[in-house]
Amino acid sequence: MADRGEYKRDQNYLTTRITADGRDGYPVEPGRYRLVIARACPWANRAAIVRRLMGLEDALSMGIAGPLHDERSWSFHLDPDGKDPVLGIERLQEAFFKRRPDYPRGITVPALVDIPSGAVVTNDFRQITLDLEQEWQALHRDGAPDLYPEKLRDEIDEVAELVFRDINNGVYKCGFATSQEAYDTAYDRLWERLDWLEERLQGRRYLVGDSLTEADVRLWPTLVRFDAVYHGHFKCNRQKLSEMPALWAYARDLFQTPGFGDTIDFDQIKTHYYGVHRNINPSGIVPKGPYPGDWLSPHGREDLGGRPFGDGTPPGPPPEGERVPPLT
């Protein structure tokens, strides 16, 4: 925290990369690594989406931490015996300590773990999705979309950085501010950027170009959590997402696109935010609403044209063990 009560995210991560040429000592190999996520976490949600869209399920297994954790780590409390069935650990912290016994920072998801050694390779969430898209191409499914086309990269990077600063991280700056001044500043920047997106998305189906890109993957996990947690829990309450016509339709469009909504478990999302952040919600009571079924209502975005997967095709259904509960 800064002196003025502003939330400061620690962005120092393990930046080792898994690459096609193995230049950091970790070459892309099918079955060697495990992607650890939590359904609750928006940063991990990005990696789960990209893994689905690229069709990497057979090449890269996925461990799912439960929604509750303490000051030590995310844990696998939903798995049998409370252990990840592949890594054999109770807490993700154990894999970080295998890499660095004195690891001094937060234990974050997503994390890519080297299964033979049991050690985390990287938790650099921004680079993980880009590498799954670019470095893992030899293991992509037929029809995997190009989420980071070279001709659009400058615009994707520019939009994604604004979204990160003011929205992805902006909701946390609202929720974890410890002064009125810091909260007011974060709140104003959040809504200025959401208004900018509302206008941008009125006449175009996707953020950049006419198909899904990395920019959409980075924005959407925040939008899908907005009404359920950020609006109330983080005091981002000028409007609900469902009261912003273009953004709400855009968010539903993606929810109904294979690879997006099929990664979402609203119960785990709410359990995490309301149950873990006791400094904000001391009672730990988890709200029953909002009604999630509205995510399946017609959105009408097809009228704007565009092709979700560009020259590619939709991914198949999630593996049996990775399916989320249906909306009720």
Automatic annotation (TrEMBL):
<dbReference type="InterPro" id="IPR047047">
    <property type="entry name" value="GST_Omega-like_C"/>
</dbReference>
<dbReference type="InterPro" id="IPR036282">
    <property type="entry name" value="Glutathione-S-Trfase_C_sf"/>
</dbReference>
<dbReference type="InterPro" id="IPR036249">
    <property type="entry name" value="Thioredoxin-like_sf"/>
</dbReference>
<dbReference type="GO" id="GO:0004364">
    <property type="term" value="F:glutathione transferase activity"/>
</dbReference>
<dbReference type="InterPro" id="IPR040079">
    <property type="entry name" value="Glutathione_S-Trfase"/>
</dbReference>
<dbReference type="InterPro" id="IPR016639">
    <property type="entry name" value="GST_Omega/GSH"/>
</dbReference>
<dbReference type="Pfam" id="PF13410">
    <property type="entry name" value="GST_C_2"/>
</dbReference>
<protein>
    <submittedName>
        <fullName>Glutathione S-transferase family protein</fullName>
    </submittedName>
</protein>
<feature type="binding site">
    <location>
        <position position="74"/>
    </location>
    <ligand>
        <name>glutathione</name>
    </ligand>
</feature>
<keyword id="KW-0808">Transferase</keyword>
<feature type="active site" description="Nucleophile">
    <location>
        <position position="41"/>
    </location>
</feature>
<dbReference type="InterPro" id="IPR004045">
    <property type="entry name" value="Glutathione_S-Trfase_N"/>
</dbReference>
<dbReference type="InterPro" id="IPR010987">
    <property type="entry name" value="Glutathione-S-Trfase_C-like"/>
</dbReference>
<feature type="site" description="Lowers pKa of active site Cys">
    <location>
        <position position="230"/>
    </location>
</feature>
<feature type="site" description="Lowers pKa of active site Cys">
    <location>
        <position position="273"/>
    </location>
</feature>
<dbReference type="Pfam" id="PF13409">
    <property type="entry name" value="GST_N_2"/>
</dbReference>
<dbReference type="GO" id="GO:0005737">
    <property type="term" value="C:cytoplasm"/>
</dbReference>
<feature type="active site" description="Proton donor/acceptor">
    <location>
        <position position="172"/>
    </location>
</feature>
<feature type="region of interest" description="Disordered">
    <location>
        <begin position="289"/>
        <end position="328"/>
    </location>
</feature>
<feature type="domain" description="GST C-terminal">
    <location>
        <begin position="149"/>
        <end position="273"/>
    </location>
</feature>
